[in-house]
Design goal:
The protein has 20 helices and 18 strands. The protein has about 500 residues and is an alpha/beta fold. It folds into three domains: about 10-50 and about 70-75 and about 225-305 and about 420-500, FAD/NAD(P)-binding domain; about 90-215, no CATH class; about 310-415, Protoporphyrinogen oxidase, mitochondrial, domain 2 (Polyamine Oxidase, Chain A, domain 2). The strands form four sheets. Strands 1, 2, 9, 10, 11, 12 and 18 form a seven-stranded mixed beta sheet that branches. Strands 7-6-14-15-16-13-17 form a seven-stranded mixed beta sheet. Helix 4 (about 115-130) packs across helix 5, helix 5 crosses helix 6 and helix 5 (about 140-145) crosses helix 8 (about 175-180). The two termini are about 45 Å apart.
Length: about 500
Amino acid sequence: MVPAEIPHSKVFVIGAGPAGLTSSYLLTKQGISTTVIEADPVYVGGISRTANYKDFLFDIGGHRFFSKSKEVVDLWKEILPQDFIERPRLSRIYYDGKYYSYPLKAFEALGNLGVVESGLCVLSFMYKQAFPNEKPVTFHEWVANQFGERLFSIFFKTYTEKVWGMSCDDISADWAAQRIKGLDLWTAMSSALRNSMTPKGKKDGTKAHDGEVIKTLIESFQYPRKGPGMMWDAAAAKTRAQGGVIHMGHTLQSITYDDKTKRYAIIARNTRNEMRAFTADHIISSAPITELVTSFSKQPKCAETAKKLRYRDFLTVALIVEKPDLFPDNWIYIHEPSVKVGRIQNFRSWSPELIPNTTQSCLGLEYFCFEGDGLWAASDSDLIALATKELAEIGLVTADDIKDGCVVRQKKAYPVYDDSYKANVETIRTELAESYPGLHLVGRNGMHKYNNQDHAMMTAMLTVENIIAGKQVFDIWNVNEDAEYHEAGNSGAEQALKSVRMVPRKVGAAA
């Protein structure tokens, strides 16, 4: 038998998440041959997929569609033109048996904390303003500088340590700077007072010192009516319609680079345990760096460094509740140390179309863990029982209100920002850039950067521009490097795009 010819593509994409499918859609739109592999046999979208349990739809985490990049927003509308709805952003913090609106409402916070505690928080902040950590290295030091030690302990410490499973003294300040830059106690207090005193319907949003809206505190967002999976299902369908190939249930096994032909040979394993071979001129990888590096047939020097990168996993316990409207929040942050749950999603508040009837609701209780630990290894029935117990303990529902539930586990949900991650990533990216031309790292896990999906998409968009140009027009490692891209307003987005541009060229223009 004559062996089948190995399929060749100009670009081979690893992973059908936001970054991977943005790449494949834009490449095939330009007529560039593209092949995608995705390990999941059913879902595209990665962590931004929409799960389905008995016609109850829910996110793996919550995914707001908000970006200050016009290019990203335009692409969302291009891929999914008719199915966005605008949703109010409402979230609260649960701490010590009380609820705190987020953004803060000054008089509510004062009443919950009490005059004495509020005064101590302000004094703690003023002390840190007078005697700050001059060069904050850890998350603890950075947040204490911005809010004071007392508010750090109330509103940051417990939740952050639940998310990461490590002390705030072991988490890099980079994570805080990236996620909440632009917000400090004065900003929060002034906004809270302004919004408390402004007539309903007249609020102007929460602004930083320079007057720009802070992304953390936006008051509304766009959302696909049946969840974020709609976006990525559409991107996959359009990729295929434009001539692209997507292989579901295919896991990367090995990569070999031929320096003579300047081509990559890729081996993937499908769900039937069969090996499939591919070749390509370029590889775009959104796979975790550890998995990518260890897949090379000839191990690069940075392989040991890659093994040092850490990831935080998490699981969602989705509970079906025999009540239609439990609370208006999209989610509630659980800062209470007496329970393990970190955040509670209310999926009807994301979109009524996620719930298949008008008599029930669906809550997603999120538990942060490491793959293989006690929470991760617990049976689904035990996790549903734990979530039911904790939900009743918080007081949102009674155990009798819970009628059904399911568990979804998500590996490598968050790249860990420990004290050595930055040096490790720099070592890896430097060697890969020097040794493997045509290899492009994109997305959250592909770059080991805690990016939102709009930033993951931007890394893919600019990578496609580089491939089309045949040279490095943009340095994608600067996307979201300056936290102002993440937190600031429109000029922040413009500044960020300027920072990644290596030569003048319009985003979206073909070479």
